[in-house]
Each structure stands twice: as C-alpha cells, then as structure tokens.
C-alpha cells in the first residue's frame, strides 16, 4: 500500500507501506499509481515526495510474487507516469533503495538520501536484470562505464559513493523526508525536462565497443555459464546505441528470457535459502525463536595455524577481544607478525578505519581463563583435541562455551571429556576463515540450545551464513564431498584424465574442478584421514577393494610419490614450483595412470562430460538425501546454502538439492539405479530411501520437502 498526505506548503507525501522492506508488491504498485494520480489532480499540490515507511525506502520488486502470475499495475508504465508528472517529484531515500526501489527513484526527478542509505541494482544476483527501466536510465544518468560496474556486479553502494557518481542530488545526516520536502519546495516551478532521465543521451567513452567487449569477457569469466550477467551487458549495449524506447524493448526481451530461465528460479531460491537457514531448528525442538543466545565480547582461539589465524581475524573484525594461544613458540612468533597484517588488510578491504577488536597473543593456555567462548583450532587429530578440551574444562571459568573447529570429528566425544557437555558445539569454518562466508555450527546430542544459539549468532555477527548441522562424520559438507571425490577417482581408473573431469565440472559452473581443488587444499589432508580410517598405509594390501567396497588407491599413490599438490609444485597437475598457482597438465600423471590401469587390468574407455557430471554430482546429491533422512540437516535449503557458500557450487544452479529438483527426481533416481547396477560395490550410488519416497509421491517441489520429511518421520517411513 501507499499512504497519501498533504504537507503544509503544497507538498504531497507518498509513503510506501509494506514491511519489512517496502517491496513493490501489487498492492504497493496500485497504491503508488493511485496516490500519484491524486497528487497530479490536486491543484493545491505543487510538488511530491515519495518515501518508505519505517526507515526503509524500498527493497525492490516483491521477489515472492515472481513465482506466481503478475497481478496489479506493472512497474514500467508506473515509473514512466511518475517521470512524466509536471510537478517535481523527489525520492527521499532512507535505509535501502535496491532494484525496483532504485528504479522507482530514477523515475523521480530528484533523489535525496540519508548518509547511511545503501543503493544498488542487485537484480543480477537474482538471475535478472534491472527490468523496470534501470538498465536504460542509470547509464543515461551516470555514464556507461559506471553503470556497467553497478549493474553487472549488483553491488550495494553507500550514499557517499552514489552522490559522487551523480545518482543522488543531496545526502543528509538529518531527517531525509524533511530535507526532501524542503528541496522540492525550493525547486518547484523550475523546468523538469533535463530531470527526465529517459530523454537524456547515454554518456559513453570513445572506445565504447572495446569497453563492452571487455565487460562481456569479464562477466563470462567471473560466473561461467550464468545468463544474467551476459544479459546485463547486452542491455547496456542497447542503452549505449539505441534510443530509449528501443532500449526498453531490448530490456523487456532480455528480462523475459531470464524470467523463464531455470537460473532465475535457482538464484531466487538461493536468496530465500540464505534466510531460511537463519531460522534454524533442531530435532529436539530448540529453535532460533525459543533459544536465547549469549552476546560474546571476549573469546580465545587455540592453535594459530592457517585456520586459527583466520578465525582470530574474523572475531577481531567483529569487535571481540581475542586471546590467541599457540604453544609452539616458532608458530606463535610467526602468527603474531602475520595476524595483525591480515587484520589490517581485511579491515581495509571492508573500509573500516581501524579494526575494532583487540588481540593478545600467548603461549599459555591458562590465559583463556577469563574469556566467554573458546574456539579450538589445533591440528585435526582426535587425541590432541581431547587433550586440549580436558585442559580447557579445568582452566576456563564455569559456563564458558567450548567450540571446536574440527572439519568432521565427533563433537560428542569432545563434549564427553568436559564438565559441561551442554556447552560444547562445533564451529566449522572454511579457509580462509576471515573471508569465506560459510560456518557449520555442529550440535551434538548434548549441546544446549543456548550454545547452538550463541554460535549461530556469533557466526552472523562475523558476517557468515551459519548453518546448524548434526554430528556425523564429515558433518554435512564434507560428508557429501566424500562420494563426489570417490567418483572422480573411479573415473580416472576407467579412462578419464584429471583435466577432463575438471573441465566438465568447471563447465557446469564450479570455479575449480575437483582435482585442481584437491591440489590447492593439499592431497595429504585426505591421505591422513584415509590412513586413520585404516584404508591405506603400511600393512594394507594394495587392492581395489577395501573394507568390502570399491576403493581407488590412486590418490594414495600420488601422495606416496611425494606429490602433495600446489605446496610441493606437483599433484594431479604440475606447477611452476612449490606454491605455484597455475595448473598445467603433467605427462607424469598420464604415464602413471596408464601404468596403474595396466597393472590392474583396466581398459581405458572414452568418458563423456555428461557421465562425469552424473557420476560426481548425483553421488553427492544422493548423500544429501541420506543426510536429510538422518536428520543431520533440517531441510534442503541448509544443504544448498552449505554448498553455495562453502564449496563453490554455482549459485545459478541453486545448490545440489535444488538442482536435483530441476533435473527431476525421477531422472536422478533412474541414473543412480543405472550406475549402481554397473558398480554394485559402490554403496554411495545406492539410491537413498528418501529419494525413492519423494519420487513415489510424485516428486514434490523442493520447498515442500522439509514438511514431507517431518511427516514421514512421524509415520516412521524414513
Ligand atoms: C513470464 C515473463 C514475464 C516477463 C516480464 C515480467 C515482468 C516483471 C517486471 C519485473 C520488473 C523488474 C523489477 C526489478 O528490476 C526487479 C527487482 O527489483 S528484483 C529485487 C531487487 N531487490 C533485492 O535484491 C533486494 C533483496 N533484499 C535484500 O537484499 C535485503 O533483504 C535487504 C533489503 C538489504 C534487507 O536486509 P536485512 O535487513 O538483512 O533483512 P532480510 O534480508 O532478512 O529481509 C527481511 C525480510 O524481507 C524479505 N525481503 C527482502 N527483500 C525482499 C524483496 N525484494 N521481496 C520480497 N521479500 C523481500 C526477506 O526475505 C526477509 O523475509 P523472511 O525471509 O525473513 O520472511
């Protein structure tokens, strides 16, 4: 809705009313059309101000409406009608003016914003383009170069930057509506022609073609396979070369194509998943709205390797005082040099003048006695972690939360050696911990709702997407990674090369294929885990069956050859020396694979990219269904958020579980059955019961699975 009021001095005030962000729903659009008409007809009104209720101008089109038929007045003619009004209209921008919200403001003749407001055209992140004239008006206002940057990245900008770019006419620290009212009173009666952006030419640099070509190359590189960034550049090409009306036709055509693409649905699903996971719930009934979180101001991090250092920086950036403990003197000395530099760099990147938190370094575990929360980030070794937890529980004051950054070890086993098992949770960060957005918060059977709520809230304060997951080997992300890696190795045995596997995955949209990623992370990580699990090492026979199932010793043999990935300059690829970044095909690997196949009597066959994708992705998805079935994740959104924010799953494919729905659950089931039939010794290819149940009830949409699973559980079907 929109409220109309007449202010003294002949100004009409139109207030958008649709909490929480005043999205442009059908009712709001109708309200704007009606109130603008009223202001136009009222002879006593000489100027108009449009603002939003509750300190937010407008968060854009109502994304929830995109799933249904379009009702109510369309946005494009509504904004044209505002631009055509012959009385000055100003947008008074507080909070946010995003997407359709900014497009509405661009249809106004003037824009006044509060200094804390954020502006942007983030449609590209939802698989769309600014489709209410934004792709044509913004470049006419600020020039093609700046518009390309804003529209293809979708980034939010501050009021100060918007003023500099020429989007805003005035920025204020005071009441923005008062300022806008004063502004329009001042300009009432002045000519408006030059304020109608649709009538202006688009300022372009002389090398416009090369600018647009470069922009196209850049967006294609940045998000391989994504349609929206390409369409954004095409819309801006139209703005640069065509009259406004034809540019608008192009905008509409491109938008229609995007709207009907699976990618837009995937990206909009990803937007809502990110919000759904914040509303966490545990099988015990504890949830975000019935569990109180503690506010942490003092924390400690134990272990200052790569992960520990990143965690210290992430906490300090949030304003938390951190005691950073490392018992090895050499490592401590290195960390006390490196961490302040990392902190300074990251604060600069986030435009913070000074990092808010204070860090003190220590080699003494006793120094954590006064903190409210400890994050253990020592080497991934259970006996070492148990030793640290035993020590912590005796040193820390009662009530201190004890968290582990383990990437897959048993949280309950750690909790068992403490005096308060309820205060133990996992906080699984992803490297680099101060940059990566994902945090898995792992609850054990004894973790208290308060401990989970505190870890979830702390993650949010650090700017992370926190996802609550159950305590099982590998938790959610790494548990699903296992069958994915396993299939990649089997494909090499059967005839594929690391490049072929990586290319298929990168073509799908992963920033890095599985072998390039393994080289980056270090091949010794998995090797150590396999040794601990008794799968490889001295005394283990070198067969292709271990512990009753198919096993590929390929990655172990690569490690045994001293090839540990980028850090040794050799892995599945070769690099320009230890620490090198550019992966090149290595003849050694090809000779090694041929010799391996010959030794095991395997005949290499040609493997199509479609099979590579099916084998790797469907095995991973199948494990996702097992995780849902075991209640280790509350819903498909949790798994999808983990994969998008932590594992490079292309956002325009929504996440593995959403992707399964898009491919068709029946198809996934049929292909898993086919591959399991061919490889009966690979249990990960055996279709999960949940997948079978979903197919049996007609493959309902992903948004309904959570409810379905809960019902099935009640009726003991899972
Ligand atoms: C068939 C072919 C037809 C082709 C033609 C079709 C014609 C259609 C014409 C379309 C024209 C295009 C118009 C325009 O160009 C498109 C858009 O505007 S798309 C929307 C762009 N806006 C955004 O991307 C902003 C999204 N929101 C945010 O980034 C954040 O929410 C925020 C505004 C910065 C606020 O952040 P927070 O304060 O942290 O709050 P939350 O994020 O938690 O949000 C609170 C609550 O609000 C819900 N919400 C937020 N924005 C929207 C929205 N735009 N629409 C609907 N709902 C929104 C959010 O989900 C939260 O709700 P909850 O999930 O908690 O219930």
From TrEMBL:
What SUPFAM superfamilies does this protein's entry cite? 6-phosphogluconate dehydrogenase C-terminal domain-like (SSF48179), ClpP/crotonase (SSF52096), NAD(P)-binding Rossmann-fold domains (SSF51735)
Q: Which transformation does this protein catalyse, written as a reaction?
A: a (3S)-3-hydroxyacyl-CoA + NAD(+) = a 3-oxoacyl-CoA + NADH + H(+); (3S)-hydroxyhexanoyl-CoA = (2E)-hexenoyl-CoA + H2O; a 4-saturated-(3S)-3-hydroxyacyl-CoA = a (3E)-enoyl-CoA + H2O; (2E)-hexadecenedioyl-CoA + H2O = (3S)-hydroxyhexadecanedioyl-CoA
Q: Which residues form the 3-hydroxyacyl-CoA dehydrogenase C-terminal domain?
A: 474-575, 612-709
GO MF terms held by the record: (3S)-3-hydroxyacyl-CoA dehydrogenase (NAD+) activity; delta(3)-delta(2)-enoyl-CoA isomerase activity; enoyl-CoA hydratase activity; NAD+ binding
Task: Work out whether the entry's keyword set contains Transmembrane.
Answer: no
InterPro entries listed in its UniProt record:
3-OHacyl-CoA_DH_CS (IPR006180), 3-OHacyl-CoA_DH_NAD-bd (IPR006176), 3HC_DH_C (IPR006108), 6-PGluconate_DH-like_C_sf (IPR008927), ClpP/crotonase-like_dom_sf (IPR029045), Enoyl-CoA_hydra/iso (IPR001753), NAD(P)-bd_dom_sf (IPR036291)
One of its GO biological process terms is: fatty acid beta-oxidation
Residue limits of the 3-hydroxyacyl-CoA dehydrogenase NAD binding domain? 298-471
Give the record's GO CC terms: peroxisome
Q: Does the keyword Transport apply?
A: no
Top-level taxon of the source organism = Eukaryota
Which family is it part of?
Answer: In the N-terminal section; belongs to the enoyl-CoA hydratase/isomerase family. In the C-terminal section; belongs to the 3-hydroxyacyl-CoA dehydrogenase family.
- Name of the molecule in the record: Peroxisomal bifunctional enzyme
